[in-house]
Amino acid sequence: MLFKHKSTVKVDMADLNAEAANLAAFLLNEYKLSASMTSKGLELKDVETYSLLTMVKKFVHHKNLSGTHGVNAENNIVKIYRFKGTAKKKEKHEKDTGHQNITQSWGL
Question: Which fold has domain 7-82?
């Protein structure tokens, strides 16, 4: 019962301000939560922080942003952040066909 209180929770979308309206629509359609827009993201009332964290993670996954962005929660703020460095690799390394077997190297 440590995290069961409902309060005002902010969603900090510093890197994805263009997606703020899409997140608000997602929360309204999927979870019937209304959100108000702020300069840094969204603000929701009467919701648990860690419940909203799960909802925002689902949104990031549905938008195919999970390879470049992560979601974290602390002190009634759910933050969407960009990973440092490059995005996760989606291509598998192909085997190099430059190796010769023994019969090819001996010329047989």
Answer: Gyrase A; domain 2 (3.30.1360)
